[in-house]
Amino acid sequence: MSTKLAKEDIAKMFLCSSILEEHVYKAYNSLADRVTGEQISRLLRVIAFDSKKHSIMLKLLSESIAKVDVKEVECKNLLGESWKVIDDLAKEEIYSVPDKMDLPTLIKNMVSLESYVGEEYMTSAHLVLTKLAAEEIGLELDTIKNIIEWIIQDEERHVKIIEIISKMV
User: Are the C-beta atoms of residues 13 and 131 closer than 8 Å to each other?
Assistant: First the structure.
């Protein structure tokens, strides 16, 4: 990526964010499937469904800016550490043993529940930076700004849900 961002670069950032949100959706859904506590499972599913919605919205944003294709390897370069941390956590959960467990056992087997809180903050920060990059190249921002702000509001709500879950354990 050059020092001056092009529309295609912004479109790729949104597409990579979409792919990442899809991974997060799968991770939360897997976690919800594995938890024995029904209330906690439902709360995790709320986050999963929001993440799926984010994935779709980010893909639509990408397509509205430019028609691009991207490989996960390229996403690692574009999104850097945020891609690595979130993708690693998501894949660890997605590919874990599918046994049902009580939440305390499940949490011990994860890196930590707080890692998911960190994922929510990293997603929000990444989206703000992408919005700023879009402003820099003069993209029409009203729709982009609104969608990103909605996603960030969801991410903030996810942090609160995770805090509630951690108190329920």
Answer: no
Beta bridge partners of 101: 35
Is 1 a member of any domain?
no
Within-domain flag for 2: no
Count up the domains in the chain and report the number.
1
| CATH code (residue 79) | 1.20.1260
CB 51 within 8 A of CB 23: no
pLDDT for 79-134, tens place per residue? Answer: 777 777 777 777 777 767 666 666 666 555 443 444 554 566 566 666 776 777 76
Domain hosting 75: range is 7-168
Q: Compute the distance between CA of residue 133 and CA of residue 11 in angstroms, rounded to an integer.
A: 11
Check: CB of residue 123 under 8 Å from CB of residue 21. yes
